[in-house]
Amino acid sequence: MLVRIGMDSCVIPLRFQSLSLVQTTDFFYPLVDDPYIQGRITCANVLSDLYAMGVTECDNMLMLLGVSSRLSQKERDIIVPLLMKGFSDLAVEAGTSIQGGQTVVNPWMICGGVATSVVHANEIILPHNAVEGDVLVLTKPLGTQIAVNIHQWMDDDDKWLSIKHVITKEEAVKAYQRAMSSMARLNRTAARLMHKYNAHGCTDVTGFGLLGHASNLAKIQKSEVSFVIHNLPIIAKMAVVAKHIKMTCLDFTREAQQKLQEDFSSLSPELRLLPIVRR
Amino acid sequence: MLVRIGMDSCVIPLRFQSLSLVQTTDFFYPLVDDPYIQGRITCANVLSDLYAMGVTECDNMLMLLGVSSRLSQKERDIIVPLLMKGFSDLAVEAGTSIQGGQTVVNPWMICGGVATSVVHANEIILPHNAVEGDVLVLTKPLGTQIAVNIHQWMDDDDKWLSIKHVITKEEAVKAYQRAMSSMARLNRTAARLMHKYNAHGCTDVTGFGLLGHASNLAKIQKSEVSFVIHNLPIIAKMAVVAKHIKMTCLDFTREAQQKLQEDFSSLSPELRLLPIVRR
């Protein structure tokens, strides 16, 4: 069995009976301005793809780092150790360790990693076995991207002006902190509970948003099932802000959206075989 | 046993009796102007760290790519598929496959990968068991960096002028082609021969040069041994060019060297725990 489509991690059968290699990688650019939290977010994000397959034990992690050539030496010496410590602390919390990795100098900071586990087949929960009556559970609240974006808007008078009547600075800071702590939290307990309650499938919701990942999950199901999303946990105020942005500030967001779409569409179809994330 | 120091790959004992996870990652920037060959070089470079541990079977590879935001769409559509095909073709030649990876848009092109193998302990050759009388064998010729550099100098009249009396353009092109094909070649046969002839240690010679890697290898030996290097395979003309550059064109190279050293020295000691490569 070699499963690929719709999987958060790849699963490779090994030559040793009934054992499989489960493996995932992710690297991206910093989302938040706290390097320690960014390190934790990176680690949680990499491990999340294992957890989404019901794999609760990670045998090894590799850390992938790009250190920005635009940082001064002083900035590097503060930021990079904090980033590594955040990654490493969360890896310890996940019961794994980091043996290896690679660091390069790059114009942009890069944070990423690899998570690998060798497991018996029964430790893996495949994503495509949903049956009628299954309940979809979201383990983290939505709205992190909005929270991160409007936190940046706080430093830009024009942008802030456009949303200040729907959210206060205190609320924006609170939402940002809520988003950071949520992104920096492991989904390991959720992965354990999937086994306890015999879950029939799961996916990790990241770069393609809830709708993108839900569509993927729905598409790969073996049984004829409908996915109904009727109630969503959302970080406080983020729904109203998102709605407001959509109605009024289309010029900022349309521009960003278009840029993103250009980046995607300009890669030919074969290239999209690899997950592409740009934040 | 958890071995780290002086190893080309990390070795992690698994919970399944006598099995270990052997894993390595590497990512860097393009060295040559042929994207297909660059893809092969990337794959060979990643796998080389497994082969240096005597591991001949790779269970899975992940591909890590950064697509330069400075490329036009047309350039992307030509370069990136070729890069991926080169990587993938060599992975097939190595008897492995690529199940997973990550692509981001980045100012600079990034090429890299992860190689993972699950093996019995006796499939790993540790690097520290050299005994008196062992012969050091270099499986690829030296001089690749010089060959790549002077190939770039061919497009720069001033630089070319400084070496044109020690090498012809034809020789420079030949050296460049020799360097490319050598870098794009797997060390898998060498890894197999290590088992056949009961090798006592090995290392992969890359970013730190022959002297850097030889020093590392010498340092970790358990027995009191001396390493004597008396005869080196070098790509034709590269020794004389290197010597000439050292004597005469110090301004180009000193500048590059200093930049490199700054990059290294400005990272605090803890950061050097991860292999750092800049080319």
UniProtKB/TrEMBL annotation, chains A, B:
GO terms for biological process: selenocysteine biosynthetic process. This is Selenide, water dikinase. Keywords: ATP-binding, Kinase, Nucleotide-binding, Selenium, Transferase. The keyword Transmembrane helix does not apply. GO terms for cellular component: cytoplasm. Residues 8-107 form the PurM-like N-terminal domain. One of its GO terms (molecular function) is ATP binding. It comes from the Eukaryota. Residues 132-238 form the PurM-like C-terminal domain. It comes from Bugula neritina (Brown bryozoan). The keyword S-adenosyl-L-methionine does not apply. PANTHER family: INACTIVE SELENIDE, WATER DIKINASE-LIKE PROTEIN-RELATED, SELENIDE, WATER DIKINASE. SUPFAM superfamilies: PurM C-terminal domain-like (SSF56042), PurM N-terminal domain-like (SSF55326).
